[in-house]
Every structure is written in structure tokens, then in C-alpha cells.
Amino acid sequence: MDKKGAPKGPFVKFILVDLFIILIALSLAFLLYFRDFRTENLNVYYVLILPIFLIRIGVLFLFRLYDFSRGMTSFDLVYYTGCAMLIAHGIEIFVILYTETYIETSELLSKVLVQPTEASFEISRYILFLNFLFSWSGAAAWRVLYLRRRRRWAYDRTRILIVGAGELGESVQREIQQYSRLGHEVVGLIDDDIESRSNGAPIIGRMSDLPDLVQKKQIQEIIVTSRQANRQELLHIISTCQATGCKVRLLPELYEVIIGHVEIGQVAGIPLITLDSEKNNEWGAFFKRIFDVIASAVSLILLLPLFILIAIAIKLTSEGPIFYRQKRVGKDSAPFTLFKFRTMFTNAETESGPVLSWDNDPRVTSIGRFLRKWHLDETPQFYNVLKGEMSLVGPRPERPHFAEQHKNEIPAYLMRETVRPGMTGLAQIHGFYNSPVEHKLRYDLAYINNISFLLDLKILFLTLRVTFSGHGSRI
């Protein structure tokens, strides 16, 4: 089993089923148009099959449609499968129409799919539409059938541990048992108050037993129902789940204890807060990293002339180095050196020590004000992204001094370190540089909980809009 408790065997089978669906969809689309499988028609088929396999499986991964432990409904599966297939087909059309490699590989491919005549474009739309329809129907159908079978036969249930055996804990337990068909199973409850008794699942330990129980019982989710849980206990629970990869779910009023912001999900109809991390979506993290590498490499190449002009301007307007290097805290609390174009006079913090910048900061140079207004001082961080120390999108990396200070004051702050820090993030497009830490953390946790490729694209688009407006967060 993997860290989520799901067997790896079915995962491979899921891929094979989708490959079979793609094969059948392509075959039906070509057959309905050509009416037979003549050899010359199959040339197009052979050219398309490999890139289509790679594109569709990749997009399905990005949408997490191989993860059946998220409590999705049949409608969710149909909807998100349709979205994934629509995006995949958009990518395929781009590849077919604009990549000369595929055009030159087959004379028939040029004739049928890209020849600029009215008839050829009708053929292209007809084949691609049928292919999309069959792919969506097949991929969604087997997922819905599998989900129903999984819940009917209790296959690969999500194993839940409840913290708090009082009245509220028992109520949550009863609700989950009532909706057990959704794939959830309460393994037991833990409580430091031995007098607390549960009428259903057994009390299997105390708070101090949590790390051992998570490992021995293969716990995948922890639901905290104890209203007596203080910050230190919540920090202990979050730290345990960070190490094991399981989810933490809190009731809204408990979430306010650590941050004061409500982002609601459900388990068996119960409104709960989910604190999740990138570790629970390894394939999503893999594709996110691939995108980061490609985008950062291309950006560094395209921005090279601008970098040269900025470097000259910095040297002409003030003494000191071109780049400013600063220690920041990265994923899993690992320190790294962040690169920026220098916007302050040298030795700006020699006397004051680490302090945050402010509006009209006298330490900022004239060219520095321009770079900061248009966020150009942050562009060298594409190098940090390329090295794997940062991502394009994620919580902004903090300096060690401030990171420790925030973690002591707000235990949930350490959740930011479960993912790579980013050049921009949800907090940056919804706030300003001097926004309260709690304000930024709300958005950072919301991003971590809902991390996806589509969300990254949306944040990048909004960041560009903020950048070109010359306003917004001083990221």
C-alpha cells in the first residue's frame, strides 16, 4: 500500500482501463467517418495514438481522477472527467494543427486534419468531436461504476480516527457509520479523559498514542472533535500527519483556534475543515514540477535581455552587488538562498536587524522603487524555481527569523512548509505586502488544501494582471 492506504495494483489497472477507453474511442471515431479500417486511414491513427495517450493520461492525473479517496459523487466524476477530456482535446488540437512533426509524418494527416479547405475542417471537427464524446463517456462511466462498486463492497475504505470521545465525537461517529456507503470507516476514538465513553467505536488510546496508532492502524484521516483541544495539541496532531501523509479534518470552530478562517468540506454530510498537503498527491506534484521546470527555463531565456538592462541600471544608480541573496525557509523547513535584484542600499539592515519593508522605505534606491512597483526585482527567482527550491505558485518563502516567530504564535503556520514556496500565491493576489500574517495564512492554507494545476494557472493569470497594473502585493 502507499501512504494513503490505497493498493498500488488497482492504480495500474486504472491506467490500463483508460488506455483501452482511449483506444476504443479513437477506433470508433475513425470507423464512423471512414466506414472501414483501410491501411491509409490507419496511418493517421498510428501518428495520433502515442501523443493522445500521453496527453490524456497526464491531464487525468492533474485532475486527480485516479484518486477515489476524496469522497466525490458520481456527478463530480462525470463533471471533472469532462473538464479533463475537454482540456486534453484542446492540447491535442494544438499539437495536431501547429506541430510540423506530426503534419510531416503522414501525408493523409495533412489532408484530413490540417488542409485549409472547408471540407477538411469539417472532417477534423467531426472526428475530434466524436473522439471527445466517446472518451468522456467511457472514462466517466467506468469511474462511476467503480465508485459504486467500491462503496457497495466497502473496497479500500478510508480509515478514520476521531480525536475526542465526548458527545460531539460520538455524534460524528454515528453520522459516518450512517453514511458508511460513502467509503468511510471509523477505526476508533482517542481521548485523554478515560471517563468519556463511546457507544460505537472503541476508545483505543490517548493523545500521546497518536503517532503509533496512525502507523499501526493505517489511519488515513483524523477528525478532531474535542473542543478542549488547545493550540499545542492541534500542533501535535498536524505534525504527526505531516510525517505520515494523512489528512486532518477539524470542525469549523476548532479551525478558528488556529487561524480564524473557515474553508468547509464534508465527510458523510458533516461540515469539516481539511488540512491537507502536497504529499497526498504525488503525481500532481510531479506534473507541477515539470511545468515549473519548463516555464522557468523559458522565462529565464526570454528575460535575459531585460536582466542585462536591469543590471546596468542597478550598477549606475548605487554601489553594491546586482543581486541580493537572502536565506529563506523552503519545503520541510529546509533553508535555501533566494535571489532578487538588489533594490536597497547595501548594509540596509546592519543596525536594525531583520525588519519588514514599508511604504516609502528610505532604504530603497530610486531604481529599486521602479523594480518593486512592477515586481521585476523578483524575476531572478525563476532560477530558484529551476533548481527546485521554489515553485511558480505557492506560499511565499519567509525569512527564518520571521518563520520561527510566526510558528510560535500560530501553530498552523508550519503547514505552509508542506509544499514548495512560490514566486506568487493566492495570498499575494488577494492582499498587500503589509497584510497581517493571519490574513495571508488563510489564503496559503486554502491554496494548500485545494492545490491543482488549474488553480495554479488561474493564480499566474491574476498575478500577471496585478503586475501589469503596477499595484497589488509586494510579493
Please characterize this protein's 3D structure.
It is a single chain. By secondary structure, the chain is an alpha/beta fold. The chain has 3 domains: 145 residues, no CATH class; 118 residues, NAD(P)-binding Rossmann-like Domain (Rossmann fold), CATH 3.40.50; 188 residues, no CATH class. Helices cover 55% and strands 11% of the residues. It is built from 17 helices and 11 strands. It has a 7-stranded mixed sheet with strand order 3-2-1-4-5-7-6, with helices on both faces. Strand 8 and strand 9 form a beta hairpin. It is flat and about 70 Å long. It starts with 7 loop residues before the first helix and ends in a 6-residue tail after the last helix. 35% of the residues are buried.
Helices and strands in order, then pairings?
Elements: H1 8-34, H2 39-62, H3 74-98, H4 100-105, H5 107-114, H6 118-152, E1 158-163, H7 167-178, E2 184-190, E3 203-205, H8 210-216, E4 221-224, H9 231-244, E5 247-250, H10 252-258, E6 264-267, E7 270-275, H11 282-317, E8 323-329, E9 335-341, H12 366-373, H13 381-387, E10 391-393, H14 400-409, E11 422-424, H15 426-429, H16 437-449, H17 453-469
Parallel strand pairs: 1-2, 1-4, 2-3, 4-5, 10-11
Antiparallel strand pairs: 5-7, 6-7, 8-9
Helix pairs in contact: 1-2, 1-6, 2-3, 3-6, 5-6, 8-9, 11-13
Give the structural class: alpha/beta
Q: Over all CA atoms, what is the radius of gyration?
A: 26 Å
Strand order, largest beta sheet: 3-2-1-4-5-7-6
Give the tally of β-strands. 11
Q: State the end-to-end CA separation.
A: 40 Å
How would a crystallographer describe the biggest sheet?
A: 7 strands, mixed
Number of helices: 17
Helicity, in percent?
Answer: 40-55%
Estimate nothing, just give the exact number of structural domains: 3
